[in-house]
Amino acid sequence: RAVRLAFGLACVAHLAPHRSARPSVAVGHGSRCSAAATAAGAPDGGGGFRALLPSLPAAAAESLSARGIDTPTPIQAAALARIDAGESLLLHAETGSGKSLAFLLPALRHISPRSKLLLIAPTRELAVQLAAEASPLLPAGETVAILSVGSAPAPREVMAASVLACTSEAMAEQLAASGAVASSLDQALCDLRLVVLDEIDCLLPIETFRGPRAERQRRAANRDAAPPPAEALLRRAIELCGSGELQVVAASATLSRASRNKLGRVLRADPLGRWYGNPPAVVRPAQLSSSDLSAVPRAVPPPASIRHSYVRLPLRTARF
């Protein structure tokens, strides 16, 4: 499938499919890990994925097969069926583990121009990468619109897209403006089916305070500071979208408790109470789900071969 994609373009357009060749755009790191995990003799056409996603569209299965991806990675095996069933989840797995496909593949059968997937990223580069990952999975004729700093799609492209990939800052800037683009984006938020916050720790940052006044400082910061753009965007999305099937999926290699709690507070403010008493569950690869993370507090511990050293510098030579 040939895809036209550039930083300056506002929309990823689908052209005639070419199934014999690999997609012509760069793909995310999840595909590399999935290919490495392929088992010998695995069936073609995304056979390993069909066991978890029987409704996987043919176009997506062929795209996976063309890229040599036949077997789900551990985080994909843990999350695919649950997202497909409609759960809101927090995906916690190392960088390069295939989290992008873990939320893109189960979304495919639920989305359309009237039931959109919103991908929120902290940077323009990640938003474009997610768009490039999603584009070859979509059926012919469906599109991905990209909204980033300095690049906004036309209103008709927003309404026609099944997937909207954006940075939170660019989306907030466009929504704050008046005009046809802002109106089309508000309508897109009304038509959401799934919201993904990729790298949630960057999107919902938490300021850390230490010392005897830390708790007082933290409360003052939470009271006085303006919410980050991603938080404001998520609040607006869940207020405008009245669908009872709306899902929220967040992903990160460093899923901090503070960010989880902040996301929980945002979702508890949902006027329809869709997440009241039912916050998104944390999903980790199976080998970590059965581990005692109190002994290994990080889901992705550094390799044992890495050593940390400290060098003491005389104060007179230190430069900061």
Question: Outline of this structure?
Answer:
The protein has 320 residues and is α/β, with parallel strands linked by helices.
Estimated share of beta-strand residues: 5-15%
Q: How are helices and strands ordered from N to C?
A: EEHHHHEHEHEHEHHEHHHEHEH
- Contiguous low-pLDDT stretches (5 residues minimum) are 1-45
Radius of gyration: 21 Å
Strand order of the largest sheet: 1-2-5-6-4-7-8-3-9
Q: Kindly report how far apart the N and C termini lie.
A: 51 Å
Main beta sheet strand tally, sense and closure: 9 strands, mixed
Number of separate strands = 9
Proportion of residues in helical segments: 25-40%
Q: How would you sum up the global shape? A: globular
Number of helices: 14
Report the structural category: alpha/beta
Mean residue pLDDT: 80
Please describe what this structure looks like.
The protein is of the alpha/beta class and 320 residues long. It is 38% helix and 13% strand. It has a nine-stranded mixed beta sheet, with helices on both faces. Helix 7 links the parallel strand 5 (144-147) and strand 6 (163-167). The chain is globular. Mean pLDDT is 80; it is low at 1-45.
